[in-house]
Design a protein that fits this description.
It is a single chain. The chain contains 13 helices and 10 strands. It is an alpha/beta fold and 327 residues long. It has 2 domains: 210 residues, Spore Coat Polysaccharide Biosynthesis Protein SpsA, Chain A, CATH 3.90.550.10; 103 residues, no CATH class.
């Protein structure tokens, strides 16, 4: 059976956090969609709970069980199994507004786009707002390249779940999530999708709710956070292999990659047990070369900060370490 939209929901150990996700799917005003719950070898009864909650709700859903392989492998399986013309990704501890699927579907078909994306809010699990990205967005239709540049430069960005993708865009171009990376794989996926897209529409409205559960990523940082760098390096290599576009390459080289290095240094500086690995990382020739390439795309407070930090990390890293290790 075919649907207009497939919502892909990886499920792993979320029994105590999935209820609001299910409620938001049940409340959707758009009805011609399916939900694919990809149970990624979850050790608890998360998918059984979802099944019991939705079985008499009228929501079309399937539960697909697989061996544990991580969120990227679950999303990739969802793409393969989806019957919808369009695809949305939703994590099983986040949620969406009741009109999100309807409004994004209406816009993507009305504007004849490959992707439509909206704003999102990052919030506490009690609903208290932490931050959102709406001010950085501009309503309207853009070329895929324009949207990709906005994402790379951090001028116009969003969360993976605030996108609606045409499935054929993903399938025809074999766009997948990198199963070898635990960080920045979703941004890499979006950059590739946007770069392949002919047209993309940005909706300046908040529909998606990214929920903070427990400690922040920064508090739980580990060596896996090095993926932020390597994922971006691999994205640059992908751009070089698949697109003859100097602007996209320049944006990765002068902004996204050096910014990733700064973010890794800051994250590691907050953890005494990672200082040795932090210095090992920034002493690498390729890392130093890439860090030295940082250039501001425009004058803004945060970009000035990254410009200063990139130079300090290269020449006086102890100053940066001392400052962030106290935070």
């Amino acid at each position: 059976m075919s649907y207009k939209v497939s919502v892909i929901v990886p499920v792993y150990k979320v029994r105590g956090r999935i209820l609001k996700t299910l409620e938001s799917l049940k409340a959707q005003t758009f009805k011609e969609f399916e939900v694919l719950f990809i149970d990624d070898g979850s050790p608890d009864d998360s998918s059984e709970f979802a099944d019991n909650y939705l079985k008499d709700s009228g929501v079309n859903y399937r539960i697909i069980k697989k061996e544990n392989g991580g969120v990227s492998s679950a999303r990739n399986l969802g793409i393969d199994e989806a019957n919808g013309e369009f695809i949305q990704f939703l994590d099983s501890d986040d949620y969406i507004d009741k009109d999100m699927i309807k409004d994004l579907y209406d816009k993507i078909t009305e504007e004849k786009c490959d992707v439509v994306y909206s704003a999102y809010v990052f919030e506490e699990n009690d609903g208290k707002r932490i931050t959102d990205n709406i001010e950085g967005l501009s309503e309207g239709k853009f070329s895929g390249k324009e949207a990709a540049l906005g994402l790379i430069y951090g001028i116009s960005y969003t969360h993976i779940m605030a996108n609606l993708f045409k499935r054929s865009l993903l399938v025809d171009n074999n766009i997948k999530f990198d199963v070898n990376r635990k960080f920045a794989e979703d941004i890499s996926f979006m950059i590739k999708s946007y770069a392949y897209a002919e047209n993309i529409y940005c909706m300046k409205k908040i529909y998606a709710h990214y929920v903070k559960w427990g400690e922040s990523v920064m508090n739980n940082v580990s060596l896996n956070y090095l993926d932020v760098y390597y994922s971006n390096i691999e994205t640059l290599q992908y751009i070089r292999a698949n697109f003859n576009d100097q602007e996209l390459e320049k944006a990765m080289i002068q902004n996204r990659i050096p910014t990733a290095i700064v973010n890794i240094f800051i994250a590691f500086a907050t953890k005494q047990n990672l200082h040795k690995e932090m210095y090992k990382f920034i002493k690498k020739k390729d890392v130093r070369k890439n860090l030295s390439r940082y250039k501001m795309v425009r004058i803004e407070k945060d970009r000035i900060k990254y410009s200063i930090l990139s130079k300090l990390i290269l020449h006086s890293p102890k100053i940066v370490e001392k400052y962030y290790s106290r935070r």
